[in-house]
Amino acid sequence: METIIEWMPRVGALLMLLLGLVGFFKPKAFTDSMGIEMTRPDAWSEIRGVFGGMNLGLAIAALILNSPEVYMALGLGWTLVLLARFYSMAKDGMTFKATIPALIIDGGLAVLFLSGLLF
Q1: What is the pTM (predicted TM-score) of this model?
Q2: Which of 27, 40, 55, 70 could disulfide-link 47, Cβ–Cβ 3.0 to 4.6 Å?
């Protein structure tokens, strides 16, 4: 029987798949939550591509391949996203309070994907 730790990366991939679906089909959910106003169609395409297509593609690949190396690569990617948030707080004046939801999502995904190495 597989342990919870073995399932954690798959849960991360499913959450990433969900983020990708939202980004692909409802990009306004991302832009509204971040206070970004999109004024051109190519801007919407960029949001759909980065938040939707990239997350969908990587999540599907992770679920199909089910490989520790793929999960580690995704975990390192999300860890760098998390570090970028902290850097943005220091450099761009982002407040910790405003960044909490993103820190939870980014940090949570990093932990889920790296759980095989961490636990």
Answers
A1: 0.91
A2: 27
CB 79 within 8 A of CB 110: yes
CA distances, 21 to each of 11, 48, 102, 105 (Å): 15, 9, 18, 16
Q: What is the pLDDT of residues 62-118, one digit of tens each?
A: 999 999 999 999 999 999 999 999 999 999 998 899 899 999 999 999 999 999 888
Residues in the chain: 119
d(CA 73, CA 99) in angstroms, rounded, equals 24
b/e map 31-45, b = 16+ CB within 10 Å: beeeeeebeeeeeee
